[in-house]
Design brief:
376 residues; alpha/beta; Nucleotidyltransferase, domain 5; 3 domains; two-stranded antiparallel ribbon; 14 helices; 7 strands
């Protein structure tokens, strides 16, 4: 810059700056003195520093520390005092990073996400209740379903006229007894409905040595397997808009659950049926499919550009909110052990709580027969 000032009498400033490779604006900016720092100006009507400290002290004292500025403002007016406006109180709090929830109110607990893993059948069950619309408006039947999350196998179900902790307890009791569940080996997961959180169910599960877990409030994907099973049921083509009576709904469930357990090829199970995975038939079925694919490959190998096809892999473990510390290797080893030596039997059971009566499809709509479970 000094060289530009020295030779500007002989040459123009743009020419000298161009020769030196500096911007002309930079030279002119260098010649100007630095502008003085601008000091913060106070509005003539603003509160003084002492007044602002006084307001902050009142807002943070023991009497008003749990109250909102509007509440403090109204209380002080009723007492004949005026410090500043409500908006000024918010400004003063914002300057000291104190704008937050000040009211003294209940703090809801922080619910942790349930983390469950199942590497074999009868390790984690999930249960839920869904409504089936009845013959008239505001009439419902309540379907209770218990599902094994590893095999997606429906281990127990019941159709009732109402939501009841006693009915849920009876269904869980019969299902655990039928599957010979040993104490300390089963976890039962559910959402936070009234029957699920009832003391009747909680004390009963504690007596049997069954661990229970619950979803977080308003988090539907904490119970994904039961929700998915209900969607599969309600999207079946034969699922009606309304059921004519209790027997009509019971007949549909009695036909749906055997299909779901024994015939439905589940995409989450490598397109095996829940029955095959639950009762240890999965490996045999996969070997059979591998043999069929090998024959097809040997017959026309040019059609398989990626080599001999293989059937879908068997499930090794499933999760509800997958724990980070679980490794897939350990899960696979546990799965291989659990899939051997399982007794083959038909685990489907039509819960005895329901009434095994003929279908009500031909009955007049709305003529429900009286039952102990019917709420009149």
């Amino acid at each position: 810059m000094a060289m530009v000032s020295e030779h500007r009498a002989l040459y123009s400033v743009p020419l000298i700056c161009a020769g030196l490779g500096i911007g002309r604006a930079s030279f002119y900016r260098w010649q100007r003195p630095s502008a003085p720092a601008v000091t913060e100006r106070m509005h003539p009507r603003a509160l003084s520093v002492n007044e602002r400290h006084q307001v902050l002290g009142v807002l943070n004292n023991e009497r008003f520390c749990d109250q909102a500025p509007g509440e403090v403002y109204a209380t002080l007016l009723d007492e004949g005092r005026y410090l500043c406006s409500e908006r000024s109180m918010y400004r003063i709090l914002a300057e000291h990073q104190q704008v937050r929830e000040r009211r003294d109110q209940r703090r809801h607990p922080c619910y942790q996400a349930p983390e469950l893993i199942a590497s074999r059948p009868n390790e984690v069950w999930s249960w839920d209740i869904t409504k089936l619309m009845g013959p008239a408006k505001w009439t419902y039947f309540y379907l209770y379903v218990i599902l094994d999350i590893f095999s997606r196998y429906v281990v127990g179900w019941m159709l009732g006229y109402r939501e009841s902790a006693e009915l849920a307890k009876k269904l869980i009791e019969q299902t655990i007894e039928r599957h010979n569940i040993c104490p300390g080996t089963l976890t039962v997961h559910a959402d936070r409905g009234a029957p699920m959180r009832s003391k009747v169910v909680a004390f009963f599960l504690a007596e049997l040595g069954v661990t229970k877990t619950h979803s977080r409030p308003y988090v539907s994907n904490d119970n994904p397997y039961s929700e998915s099973q209900f969607k599969t049921m309600k999207y079946r083509p034969e699922f009606p808009d309304r059921f004519g009576c209790y027997q009509d709904a019971h007949r549909f469930c009695a036909e749906f659950f055997p299909w779901y357990n024994h015939e439905h090829h589940h995409s989450g199970l490598g397109y095996l049926t829940p029955y095959e995975v639950h009762w240890g038939l999965a490996e045999k079925r996969r070997e059979q499919r591998a043999g069929v694919l090998q024959v097809a490959y040997e017959r026309n190998p040019q059609r398989f550009v990626h080599g001999m096809p293989k059937p879908a892999l068997l499930p090794t473990a499933v999760w509800i909110n997958k724990p980070k510390e679980i490794s897939r290797t350990e899960s696979a080893e546990v799965m291989n052990l659990s899939m051997t030596g399982v007794e083959q039997k038909n685990g489907f059971h039509n819960c005895s709580i329901t009434n095994d009566q003929p279908s009500g499809r031909d009955l007049t709509r709305g003529e429900n027969q009286l039952s102990d479970d019917l709420v009149v």
